[in-house]
Amino acid sequence: MTSYLFFQTTTTQDEDPFDTVRDFFDSGVWLAVRNVALFFLVVFWLASAYWVYKDARRRIEDPWLLAMAVALGIFPPFIGPLLYMLFRPPEYVEDVRERELEIKAMEESLDTSDRCPVCRAAIDPSFLACPVCTTKLKDSCRRCKAPLEPLWQMCPYCETPVESPRAVENL
Ligand SMILES: [Zn+2]
Ligand SMILES: [Zn+2]
Questions:
Q1: 52, 81, 91, 143: which could form a disulfide with 160 (CB 3.0–4.6 Å)?
Q2: How far apart are the first and last CA of the chain?
């Protein structure tokens, strides 16, 4: 209020061409504009800090690192969030988890034996050949035609000894 009065007296004493400019800066309009600008600056500062908190929560699991990221989002104002954006983890935690689950599921599907080794089509353990790519999967018992595992020396269903294809040819 004192500065306001001071400017008022000086402007009345000498006829300055910048009177109108000074009047403007002394007026309530200038104060209001400055206050609104400050208000928006503070709002933007808080919003940027909150954005950092929200974003960091999705990207960082470690609580200490998360606290550090939030502190950086608050101070220094505006520069902190920019620094955070440069150094934040590139992926969301849930995306990393999802990818890990996908990889695990893929490994499991590769491990399972009920898939054709050639075309990966789902096959039943009783199949002798892949119905999709016609790859021969198992030999059948020459007596009961049951599908035989490669290591079996005898058919478990009819007790017929398993003979190698070469031996069968020689008969
Ligand atoms: Zn196949
Ligand atoms: Zn058999």
A1: 143
A2: 119
